[in-house]
Amino acid sequence: MTDPHHVRRNNAHAAFQAFAEERLASGHAPKGLEQAFAEMLEISPALWSMTKSGSRPMSDKLARQFEVRLGKPVGWMDAEREPHGLTQAEQHTMAMALAAYRRTNAEGRRRLRALLKDFA
């Protein structure tokens, strides 16, 4: 059985991703998206940060608040969903990484792999 806190965190990430893509598509700058998402949810940016990182499990009360503020039905945060593949931003980032990898020499490839390992 899957941990309900893990499911809620995944759904919170998916909700943020959709929010961010919508805001970016409408011309908003990437800076401040996390804070804008927290404001929309009527929570502090610190609570959003702890929730998305998993350092604070999402309570039932907070899950219901997410659902209300996101316009989702009750229980939406608790339902497992299949990933929908790469987002447009992820596809763009992957294409840039592939282009950089192909255009550089062996030393550049090692540096790129080392940089990516720092984030993994």
In short:
By secondary structure, this protein is an all-alpha fold. It is built from 6 helices and no strands. It comes from Pseudaquabacterium terrae.
Word description of this protein:
The structure is a single chain. The chain is mainly α and 120 residues long. 68% of the residues lie in helices and 0% in strands. It has 6 helices and no strands. The radius of gyration is 17 Å and the shape is elongated. The model has no long low-confidence stretch (mean pLDDT 89). This is XRE family transcriptional regulator.
Keywords summarizing the entry:
120 residues, mainly alpha, single chain, 6 helices
**Helix-residue proportion:** 55-70%
Q: Decide which structural class fits the backbone.
A: mainly alpha
Provide the succession of SSEs: HHHHHH
- Report the total helices: 6
Taking all Cα atoms into account, the compactness measure Rg is 17 Å
Overall geometry? elongated
Largest sheet: none
Uncertain ranges: none
Q: Percent of residues in beta strands?
A: under 5%
Total strands: the figure is: 0
N-end to C-end Cα span: 26 Å
Itemize the secondary structure elements and their pairings:
Layout: H1 4-25, H2 33-41, H3 45-53, H4 60-70, H5 88-103, H6 106-119
